Amino acid sequence: MTPCRDRAALPSDRGLKSKGPAKLPKLSDERFDLLEKELAKGPAAHGWEDQRWTWERVRTLIGRQFQISCSIAGVRLLHRHGRSWQSPGRRALERDEHAVELWKKDVWPQVEGPRRRSGPGSSSRTRPGSR
């Protein structure tokens, strides 16, 4: 039988507890609110010709406004605050809805091409009548 050790001699669980995030965010909540206001002004207000916010542009804006250097990966963390590159927050100011509808009606069917004819067929690749 092995001798019983007292509890004080065992390693502590304190070393296993989380000490928080490895790094604090570079933008405080107040600075993030300021960044949101600047982003709401649009890219044109900051010198870009089109109305797209790319990660690189947001990174440049952060550097200009707050004199902070961050990586593109750091900027992508803005998705925690609801920012996404997948879709714009609003439509372009120059958008002409009438022209878009005309394009969809007149041009898109020509670009899309004809659909397959409906009729009898077979899913078999070896059956001659299915081709």
Structure report:
This protein has 131 residues and is mainly α. It is 34% helix and 0% strand. The mean pLDDT is 75. The chain has helices at residues 29-41, 55-66, 72-76, 97-106, 108-112. The chain contains 5 helices and no strands. The radius of gyration is 29 Å and the shape is flat.
What are the SSEs and their pairings?
Layout: H1 29-41, H2 55-66, H3 72-76, H4 97-106, H5 108-112
In short:
The protein has 131 residues and is mainly alpha-helical. Helix 1 (29-41) crosses helix 2 (55-66).
DSSP strand count: 0
Distance between the termini: 82 Å
Structural class: mainly alpha
Helix content: 25-40%
Largest sheet: none
- Large-scale geometry: flat
In sequence order, what are the helices and strands, one letter per element? HHHHH
Regions with pLDDT < 50 over 5+ consecutive residues? none
| Average pLDDT figure | 75
Q: What is the number of helical segments per DSSP (H or I, 4+ residues)?
A: 5
β content, as a range?
under 5%
Gyration radius, in Å: 29 Å
Which tags fit this structure?
mainly alpha, 5 helices, about 0% strand
